[in-house]
Design brief:
Layout: H1 2-26, H2 37-42
Length: about 45
């Protein structure tokens, strides 16, 4: 059960951080607006 929870927590963190990077690039009035695909790939 601990392996399952660890895998779920790790996946959740990756998804949250990945979505945050994409939102920063796409949304208006953010510091990373229109910074491009390289920022998304790095994040």
């Amino acid at each position: 059960m601990t392996n399952f929870l660890a895998e779920m927590l790790g996946t959740m963190i990756l998804i949250i951080l990945g979505d945050g990077v994409v939102a920063n690039v796409v949304l208006n009035k953010t510091k990373g607006q229109n910074s491009g695909w390289i920022v998304i790939s790095t994040g």
